[in-house]
Amino acid sequence: MSKIRIVTDSSITIEPELVKKYNITVVPLSVMVDGVIYSDSDLLEEGCFLEMMKHSKELPKTSQPPVGLFAETYENLVKEGAEKIVAIHIMHTLSGTCEASRQGASLSGADVTVIDSGFTDQCLKFQVVEAAKLAEAGASLDEIVAHVEVVKNKSELHIGVSTLENLVKGGRIGRVTGLLSSLLNIRVIMELKDYQLNTIAKGRGAKTFTKWLDSYINSIKDNDRKVAEIGISYAGTPDLAHELAEKLEVLGAPISILETGSIIQTHTGEGAFAVMVRYE
Q1: Which domain holds residue 168?
Q2: How far is CA 181 from CA 150, 168, 213, 251, 275, in A?
Q3: Which H or E run contains 228?
Q4: What's the chain's average pLDDT?
């Protein structure tokens, strides 16, 4: 077993078999629905959280893992033989998880390197899995950290939302923008870049999404960029995700289609999707 262990948080969208294969430790965030606190790890059943959110009286509230949980996690990994730990987390502008992880590391006394991924969801997975592969192969801490930075810089995340209601309630965008978008049936595409969500396209109806994707694919092809892997995450039904995947197949890279977790769904609402690309 590798002497360097990889830790992440449950904002990651990842296949359970990869977590097991690479011995990745996932620390759960929590979500409060109508006063009841749930561990994100207890809401993994397809459609489970979305159904709860639909019937909740108010928008669920998310929270980073407690400092003590991180400390306990790191202490246990050391007991299992870990000499060094690399913890890769959701970006700081979306959650306080990175800071909680750092504080937990300090309390535990373990040798922990905490990395802000600059992303979440499957873009976080790209970094975590690559780090875990290197750790398993016996790479040094410096080699792992350097490669994670390379993966980060070669990744892109775009998100499409069908409703801005949750983003407004969560304080991510202004109420006027959300109201106008709702009244006009406007769909919005945003890019996560430099730790911020920026609107890059909008239009009426679902065709806005496929029109944007056609343009995005063409820009990748025109710039002759080689794609290593693609992730598509969705909140709600997977129909649109599969439609997008059919278009993305032209890029010749493996595509992973997964339902995003409760932490992301809280902010995006139903009908949202994310397209994430890692370049070679």
Answers
A1: 155-279
A2: 37, 11, 20, 32, 21
A3: strand 227-234
A4: 89
Based on the domain organization, do 142 and 169 belong to the same domain? no
Burial 213-244 (b: 16+ CB within 10 A, else e): beebbeebeeeeeebebbbbbbbbebebbeeb
* In a domain? residue 229: yes
Residue 70 has pLDDT above 90, yes or no: yes
- For 83, list phi and psi in degrees, rounded to 5: -95, -35
Question: What does each C-alpha distance from 43 to 32, 58, 225, 232, 233 come to in angstroms?
Answer: 12, 18, 37, 19, 16
Give yes or no for residue 148 having a pLDDT over 70: yes
pLDDT of residue 32: 83
* 253 shares a domain with 125: no
Question: Residues 6 or more apart from 222 whose CB is under 8 A from it?
Answer: none
Q: What pTM, to 2 d.p., does this model score?
A: 0.90
Residues 222 and 86 in one domain: no
